[in-house]
Amino acid sequence: CETCSKEEAKYRCPRCMKYSCSLLCVKKHKLALSCNGVRDKTAFVSVNEFTDLNLLSDYRFLEDVSRTADAAARHCTMHSPATKRLLQCLRNKARGCNIELKTLPVGFTKRRENSTMFNSMEKKFYWHLKLIFPHCHAEYTLKRVPDDKTLTDILKPYIDPVESDPVVCQRLKIYTTSPQSDVQILMKIENRSRNSVRYNELDACRSLLDNLKGKVIIEYPTLFVVLKRLKNDMVVLGK
């Protein structure tokens, strides 16, 4: 057993291939590695290791995709004129703020979970926002974030040593113990080839709206919070 190193292993995790001896060790390894125990159907398999079972798995995966796409195409509410008008209005409002907002077809996860809205009375966006902390392998989803809120205020509940939630603070300890000057906020530049991924650096002191101006957003913004002193493979545009 790779968890307790005491008993003979009886189970193997379909996701990370870790050996476990009991249900207790299975739960411990899932908690320690943030593993969901579900086999990754799209994991890379080299040609030398490719077998008939892998071929069958790929075939079933494509069948599942086909069924999901067909079910989405039949979903009447997502294709209603009211929904289309709402999305068109949202894109037009974003264009008026110099933001190119693109929406995905029905069936995509980002389309389904997006909660972004525009308040006509206040004349401002309330964004669905995803924060990714790659050094801690952590992700957080925020709903209805006002566009006039600064990035510093948005990040306070996560990396501020005083105002952050104790549980979150412990998980993001490497961020909370680092000086604010070392924190860098990046956003992926869309519509680039896969072998030329680049990121824009955002200004933490400015509002979310100011940072999104002049950029392309697919469904909702995803912000990557990184530390300058730690090596990462994210290439910032112009650097």
TrEMBL record:
Keyword Methyltransferase: no
One record GO biological process: snoRNA localization
Gene Ontology molecular function: zinc ion binding
Domain of life where this protein originates: Eukaryota
A single GO cellular-component term on record: pre-snoRNP complex
InterPro entries: BCD1 (IPR051639), BCD1_alpha/beta (IPR057721), Znf_HIT (IPR007529)
Pfam families: BCD1, zf-HIT
UniProt keyword Phosphoprotein, yes or no: yes
Keywords annotated in UniProt: Isopeptide bond, Metal-binding, Phosphoprotein, Ribosome biogenesis, Ubl conjugation, Zinc, Zinc-finger
Record field: transmembrane: none
Span of domain HIT-type: 1-35
Quaternary structure (record): Interacts with FBL, SNU13, NOP58, NUFIP1, RUVBL1, RUVBL2 and TAF9. Interacts (via HIT-type zinc finger) with the RUVBL1/RUVBL2 complex in the presence of ADP.
Cited function: Required for box C/D snoRNAs accumulation involved in snoRNA processing, snoRNA transport to the nucleolus and ribosome biogenesis.
Protein name, UniProt field: Box C/D snoRNA protein 1
Protein's organism: Mionectes macconnelli
Name of the coding gene: Znhit6
